[in-house]
Amino acid sequence: MQLISAVQIGKSGISENLIETIKSHFKHHQNVKVVCLKNSKRDRNSIKAMAEKIISHLGNNYTYRVIGFTIIIKKWRKPKR
């Protein structure tokens, strides 16, 4: 089982297809790295807003961390309280 997988956000932004792709990556990986490309909005506040939107679609078992233009999403075994 690999530890990390990578997904990119482009000009289309966050879509249902992106959410489904992230969910499928979590079947085989513990962490997913989401990289925001230059075509997407690239300021700190919009990246945090994108991370919040992704986490709200995924559920309670996930947390995130923003590092630069990258969002690291981690899946926990138990739901976050």
What does this structure look like?
The protein is α+β, with helices and mostly antiparallel strands. Helix content is 31%, strand content 35%. The protein has helices at residues 16-25, 44-58, and strands at 2-9, 29-36, 62-67, 70-75. The protein is globular and about 35 Å long. The mean pLDDT is 87.
At a glance:
By secondary structure, the protein is of the alpha+beta class.
Question: What's the helix and strand layout?
Answer:
Elements: E1 2-9, H1 16-25, E2 29-36, H2 44-58, E3 62-67, E4 70-75
Parallel strand pairs: 1-2
Antiparallel strand pairs: 2-4, 3-4
Helix fraction bin: 25-40%
What overall form do the CA principal axes indicate?
Answer: globular
Q: Count of helical segments?
A: 2
Low-confidence residue ranges? none
DSSP strand content? 25-35%
CA distance, first residue to last residue: 27 Å
Q: What are its keywords?
A:
about 80 residues; alpha+beta; Translation Initiation Factor IF3; about 35% strand
